[in-house]
């Protein structure tokens, strides 16, 4: 079994390295020479825990290779995965399929022998059939099947998610293609991982439905948090008590600054567009998108309010800028709306993130980047915790406060207990913890 992985980003690189660990030979392809050169040297172009060890192991075993030469990789492969980006199209929010379509045409030209072409990228319903049409038009002699195999891994725990997924979803139209996919995922079959083998359309829609549902859960608890603040309740207790109901479940019930990241924002909008196109508007998801956008915008006002109504001439320290811990991914991170809004309101920003500062610096101009949390806090009028990295979970609040100009803590992830912060002399603002909480 030989696999070609077209696109070596968060999904392609992790999937490729994991497949190589399972046994097959995997060639990861990318258009970026710099990325491939870096990977050949065993250096990681992204931050993902455990990835450097896994890639190193794959390189040493000879089962994992990196190239920009798509032609050779595809010609040798039994299974070709498309794992390129599908960002939001400017203007209408529909998934931009230009990278998928370009990859499909490129792949088509180099197919030899029976090959399964698999879309792992998150793509709207109908894309699998469009990919098949592109391949057929570009290379009428090609012997191939198209399969949809959406990926559910999470950045920050991507390897574990890939190796021990809750399920694998496969949209395959022919028994031959389904058999090849079972082969590709054989080690997971042996672990009794549930496999949902279904149609192309069902597999494609499943990915969007799952992401929209999780985004809805987050948005729901965020609205409950706002209500908690008004009525004096504690959203963390509400979430825990709700989540202990097996029908609801405890995950994705953490109130915060609104969801960001490389998937939920673009996938919810893309689902809304698809539903509108088919004349069955997904009104619930439309509302989730609007509520979340408004929420991200409102977070800067929360900081300004905590600072007494104005941040003009004040210095604000930011802890964490990536969209979540354990990743350097800045795509649609809440920090990208909060920090510029505070700067527009006249604040000077100091910030630190354990992994994302290289990615963040070009996106967030005029920020003074620091080396640790206490350096961030120095001479600050307030510190704002945006991303709950582990190293921000047990800060010495006395030490933090001692270097600040005034002890104001805005904790957008509810990492600290209000009483604890107050005991250290802080004025504390969390999320969804009202005056009785
Ligand atoms: P990414 O931007 O990190 O990586 C995409 C890579 O594809 C880039 O390195 C780019 O250079 C390369 N590329 C683009 N066109 C190419 C071509 N024609 N040939 C070869 N390489 C090409 O994107 P990502 O985060 O890995 O996401 C990929 C897809 O997976 C998206 O559809 C995304 O929605 C989906 N997805 C992402 C995650 C996640 O957590 N990041 C999780 C599940 C699904």
Automatic annotation (TrEMBL):
Pathway: Nucleotide-sugar biosynthesis; UDP-alpha-D-glucuronate biosynthesis; UDP-alpha-D-glucuronate from UDP-alpha-D-glucose: step 1/1
PROSITE patterns, per the entry: PROKAR_LIPOPROTEIN (PS51257)
InterPro entries per the UniProt record, alphabetical: 6-PGluconate_DH-like_C_sf (IPR008927), NAD(P)-bd_dom_sf (IPR036291), UDP-Glc/GDP-Man (IPR017476), UDP-Glc/GDP-Man_DH_C (IPR014027), UDP-Glc/GDP-Man_DH_C_sf (IPR036220), UDP-Glc/GDP-Man_DH_dimer (IPR014026), UDP-Glc/GDP-Man_DH_N (IPR001732), UDPglc_DH_bac (IPR028357)
Binding site for substrate: 152-155, 207, 252-256, 260, 324
Binding locations of NAD(+): 30, 35, 86, 122, 155, 266, 331
Active-site residues from the entry: 263 (nucleophile)
UniProt KW keywords: NAD, Oxidoreductase
Reactions catalysed, as given in the entry: UDP-alpha-D-glucose + 2 NAD(+) + H2O = UDP-alpha-D-glucuronate + 2 NADH + 3 H(+)
Molecular function GO labels: NAD binding; UDP-glucose 6-dehydrogenase activity
Group of enzyme by EC: oxidoreductase
Matching SUPFAM superfamilies: 6-phosphogluconate dehydrogenase C-terminal domain-like, NAD(P)-binding Rossmann-fold domains, UDP-glucose/GDP-mannose dehydrogenase C-terminal domain
Residues annotated as domain UDP-glucose/GDP-mannose dehydrogenase C-terminal: 317-418
Record family assignment: Belongs to the UDP-glucose/GDP-mannose dehydrogenase family.
This protein's name: UDP-glucose 6-dehydrogenase
Highest classification ranks of the organism: Bacteria, Pseudomonadati, Gemmatimonadota, Gemmatimonadia, Gemmatimonadales
């Amino acid at each position: 079994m030989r696999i070609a992985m077209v696109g070596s980003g968060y999904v392609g690189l992790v999937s490729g390295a994991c497949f190589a660990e399972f046994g097959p030979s995997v060639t990861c392809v990318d258009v970026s020479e710099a990325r491939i050169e870096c990977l050949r040297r065993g250096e990681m172009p992204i931050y993902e825990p455990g990835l450097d060890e896994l890639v190193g192991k794959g390189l040493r075993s000879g089962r994992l290779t990196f190239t920009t030469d798509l032609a050779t990789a595809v010609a040798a492969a039994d299974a070709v995965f498309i794992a390129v980006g599908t960002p939001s199209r400017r203007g209408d929010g529909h998934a931009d399929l230009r990278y998928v379509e370009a990859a499909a045409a490129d792949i088509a030209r180099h197919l030899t022998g029976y090959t399964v072409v698999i879309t792992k990228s998150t793509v709207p319903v109908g894309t699998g059939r469009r990919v098949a049409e592109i391949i057929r038009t570009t290379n009428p002699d090609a012997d191939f099947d198209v399969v949809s195999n959406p990926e559910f891994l999470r950045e920050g725990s991507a390897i574990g998610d890939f190796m021990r997924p809750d399920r694998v979803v496969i949209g395959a139209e022919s028994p031959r293609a389904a058999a090849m996919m079972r082969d590709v995922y054989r080690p997971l079959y042996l672990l009794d991982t549930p496999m949902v083998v279904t149609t192309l359309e069902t597999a494609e829609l499943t990915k969007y439905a799952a992401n929209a549902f999780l985004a809805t859960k987050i948005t729901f608890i965020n609205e409950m948090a706002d209500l908690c603040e008004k009525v004096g309740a504690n959203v963390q207790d509400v979430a825990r008590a709700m989540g202990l109901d097996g029908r609801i479940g405890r995950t994705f019930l953490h109130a915060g600054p609104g969801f960001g990241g490389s998937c939920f924002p673009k996938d919810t909008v893309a689902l809304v567009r698809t539903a509108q196109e088919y004349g069955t508007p997904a009104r619930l998801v439309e509302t989730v998108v609007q509520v979340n956008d408004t929420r991200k915008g409102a977070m800067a006002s929360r900081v300004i309010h905590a600072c007494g109504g104005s941040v003009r001439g004040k210095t604000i320290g930011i802890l964490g800028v990536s969209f979540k811990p354990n990743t350097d991914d800045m795509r649609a991170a809440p920090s990208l709306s909060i920090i510029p809004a505070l700067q527009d309101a006249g604040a000077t920003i100091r910030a630190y993130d354990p992994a994302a500062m290289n990615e963040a610096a070009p996106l967030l101009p005029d920020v003074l980047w620091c080396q640790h949390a206490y350096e961030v806090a120095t001479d600050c009028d307030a510190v704002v915790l945006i991303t709950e990295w582990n190293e921000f979970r047990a800060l010495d609040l006395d030490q933090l406060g001692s270097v600040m100009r005034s002890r104001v803590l805005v904790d957008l992830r509810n990492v600290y207990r209000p009483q604890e912060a107050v005991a250290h002399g802080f004025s504390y603002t969390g999320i969804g913890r009202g005056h009785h909480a």
